[in-house]
Design a protein that fits this description.
The structure is a single chain. The protein has about 280 residues and is mainly alpha-helical. The chain is built from twelve helices and no strands. The longest helix is centred in the N-terminal third of the chain and has 25 residues.
Length: about 280
Amino acid sequence: MLMVSLIWGTTFVVVKNVLSEIGPFIFIGLRFVIAFAALILLSPGSLRFFKASTWSSGFLLGFFLLLGYAFQTIGLKYTSASNAGFITGVSVVIVPIICSLIGRRWPSFRTIVTVVTAVAGLYLLFFQQPPFTLARGDLLVLVGAFGFALHIVFVDLYSHKHNAVAITAIQILLVGVFSLAVGSVVESWPRQLSHQAIGALLITSIFATALAFWVQNIMQKYSTSTRFAIVLTTEPLFAALAAWAWAGEHLTRQAWAGGGLIVLSMIISILTRREKNLVEANV
């Protein structure tokens, strides 16, 4: 799972670099269609679990997953990979807020503490230099974090009723097909893809989506969701390190402080929540 977290973290800089030659929706579409094919090849037996109820639940979950990836990928065009990694991590903190709203109850004190800590971290990330305005890319990625948080909440509500691989494959297929449809209308198809773009598609579709979920699905029976979630809090740290190593991004002390507060809020949120049956993760 630590390797999965490493792969997910590095994809931020991989995706940001490739967006200079391919539109975000076309990239997401190709990524998820390839991931769907790879996941079915890894687990062909899951096809028999593609039932009507699984399709309906998968479409709902896929909608939230699409929101997350669409806003995150578009936002990556206008912000740094390291900022995107830390901001996406806020989704873990948003989850208990959504649960409180659904349950029509006040958030617990520990939830309020994690939200305040996360907001302080976001403030330090957002407003690092004059004129201290909120960058468009940061805001888009934050909207994407809400999409991922909604996905986590509804995965916990619906996924246990279906075969894990089948319902995930349906979500992936929905994101891929819808993104390709939108991209074909609002974006231009590249005449040819560079080796960098092809490599990015293979890394994000096979390793960061299909294979990562497949490994996660196999490994989760050997541990608990809390332990897995703690391991996955390293994702934004890997994103920052990859951005520094491959893209030359250098975080200021203020940015590191902001990112550190966000990771701290993630850890507090995970350690103080009730044990979940499912691992909270971006497939």
